[in-house]
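ok so I'm stuck.
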Amino acid sequence: MKSPNQKKPVAKLTSTSTPCGSQLGAAWIASAAPRVQKDFLKELTEDELRALPWMFEFWAMEHQLPPEGDWRTWVILGADLVAPGRYELSGRLRGQLGSDALMPAQWPAGSYFVLLDGTPEQIELAASGRNTLQYFQIGPAARPYSDYSYRKLSAAFAGNGLRPYAPVHLAQKWDGADLEFSWIRRARLDGASWDLAEIPLSETQERYQVKIFSGAQLLRLEEVHQAQWRYSAAMQALDGAQGLLELQVAQLSESFGPGLRRKFRFTI
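replied:
not stuck anymore, here's the structure
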């Protein structure tokens, strides 16, 4: 089906002086000339024409479309109604369930919010189905899958429930000309108790991937088996490490690979 958002190339490149939102299908077809509307509908197959009234992406307003990018999880201790349909949230525990390593310093106003009240259910995924393209059909439960109102969706899932959390409390100290880094691992399973002497490993062995960057250039990649690493003076000289650098640490999982990374900037 031809996209209604396709435009002919223009001869002159310029810039806009005011913000400009995306042109959605419904807005385009409503403002198009009758001849353009007729040509657009004429190019649709019979199934596409029947499905058009049910295509949410075509008719939805911009703020109704699903967002792009990562999500973060909050625990909210208070929600006070301040106006009809408007709540003031307090006691926010941000970055729950390991999403802290994905969230930016600030999220813009108008970000999407989904209440996890038990209604959304996670799709079960066997280990053999990870990173495998799967196909779904979504539509009214009262209608059969063959109905033209059903949408088809394909997606592959990495199985992020197995992904190790990013380490925390990264620290550095100088030992002569050597730099020693240390951190504390986190656990996906059984790590919430304050009575434990040590954080559960949740893996068959303790392993971490350590990277040193200078800007976007990777200077060094190491694998270590304890929550500390020494960046010796000899390594620094071999890497040409100087100025502002960045350490990245991720716990390794036998079933998932590298987990989320914790970043730490330092200067040599």
